[in-house]
Amino acid sequence: MAAPHTLVPQKSTNNRFKQAKYGMKRLAKVERAIEEKLKKQAKRYNKSYQGEMVHFDTKRLPLLQNQKVTDPRDYLFIAIDDFSRELYTAILPDRTVASAAKFLLHDVIDCCPYTVECAYSDNGVEYRGNAGHPFGLACVQNNIEQKFTRIARPQTNGKAERVIRTLMEMWHDKIPFQDTEHRRKELCRFVNFYNTVKPHKSLKGDTPFEVLQASFSICDVNNPTFSHCRIFNCCFGTPKLKRNSHSFKNKSNDFWSIPLYFRKTRFVGFQKFSMLLMWFRQLVNCLPWLILGW
User: Fold this and answer.
1) d(Cα 164, Cα 187) in Å, to the nearest integer?
2) Once rounded to an integer, what is the mean pLDDT over residues 233-256?
């Protein structure tokens, strides 16, 4: 006959008891403290002038409410300036090399008010390839140097990854889109808000527009009507500025169409505030020019 099993009291695993006796904290609190410590130790950098490096990346957009799983997906192409955090975006129907080259030529170079010197991207097929790669050829034709992240190290392109996360959280997840065209218009509105109104912690609370304005003022650009803002991917008086050069190629200035456009378009929430604030800033900048002209 087997001996009866004797019950042995086990040690308590109560969290309060362990915290009182050993000073142990919850794992979530420990991990949060470690994360904050690593953030402080992180080596953050900013380039010294606009156009020195522009980060590129691509994101496959989720399906809309009325789309099927078999429908083709749209792709979001983004480019963000390392110095000023100015953002350029476009929604294209595919992720091919032709789409990447089109985005670089038409949505970045044609609209950018300064010269792009370096394009930094991951090793995706739309950005990297052989000698005849369309994106690489576009970079060579415009004297743009190409740099790539290390393989399986997307964090080295962290500025592009972070702005994609911001776009998805503040733009795509907040607005119920009716169709693809509606999504494109809302993207342009958000990019305008991102570049002209939204304060950036990495820029010490300034906006990309304010950083560019300060940078161009250092370069002796004293034209009060000069603007780096883009509304719906349209440039309003954005001459190309080369490094250590004061020669400009003036483009069309459609500043006074901003209030008219505001009256014709339905804006809600921060879009309306964004447009009003931007127009007020432009008006204040133009006051000395108007007074001297009259």
Assistant:
1) 12
2) 39
Q: What is the pLDDT of residues 67-85, one digit of tens each?
A: 999 999 999 999 999 999 9
199 residue type, one letter: P
DSSP structural state of residue 3: P
Helix crossing, 180-196 with 208-218: angle to 10°? 50
pTM value? 0.68
Of residues 216 and 262, the one with the higher pLDDT is 216
Q: Give CA angle at 101 (137, 239), nearest 5°.
A: 95
Tell me the CB-side half-sphere exposure of residue 293, using CA atoms within 13 A.
Answer: 8
Structure tokens at 260: 């008219």
Token couple for 102: 């089109």
Higher pLDDT, 36 or 11: 36
- Distances from the Cα of 203 to the Cα of 5, 51, 76, angstroms: 69, 16, 25
Distance CA 136, CA 145 (A): 9
Residues 250 and 237: beta-carbon distance below 8 Å: yes
End-to-end CA distance of the chain: 114
